[in-house]
Amino acid sequence: MRAALGERVPSTIAIDRPGWDGRPGVSDLAGNARAALAALDGAGVDRASVVGHSLGAAVAGWLATTAPHRVGRLVLVAPAANLDSLSAVDYLLAAPVIGWLASVGAMAGGGAVLGAGPLRRWVAEATALDERYLRSAGRMLLAPRAWGAFVREQRFLVSDLPSLEARLGEISVPTTIVAGTGDHVVPISAARRLAEQIPRAELIELQHAGHLLHIRHADRLAEIIAPR
Question: In what order do the strands lie in the sheet containing 71-77?
């Protein structure tokens, strides 16, 4: 995504959410927002365009409701930021015991597939995703700390989204929602509903696009984030 943005923006800050940066401490949406503010403070940035993908969009939305003076613009990409974005699978993965077992099984299985060269190349061809990205994703999926981080974040997402949804109407910064009509993780209906919940939000639908917009449609997303 940074490469696609190029010289469109003077600087970019990519934030690793707590628990995914190699250190313990998976946090709720409020904790993630605090981590984002700390990153802005560390970079000496008073006000920024904040972009969040999937669960990161919920973090970005929380930041816009709790520290609007730090957010110049909000771009929510394939956003899991309202209750409509949750499916039965999300609630299953957040459940005690069975959620852990299902999450670990799915992540370890996916990591094993992506760790096998021939299968990884097949996935790369079928999805048009870069093989280096898939190799890196496979290593992450096999890391035990990633299993714990995913399960805890899933539980925080399910428990925190009602509070975020109740405050979406308070978002006052210019907001753009970008969603793919072919997204099977966060349905387009959830993005359309989110556009109704956030005052004056703009919704941009990418036809037939899936969930990984920042990977598969990086150039188009860069144009939306920072028009020439």
Answer: 48-53, 71-77, 175-180, 202-206
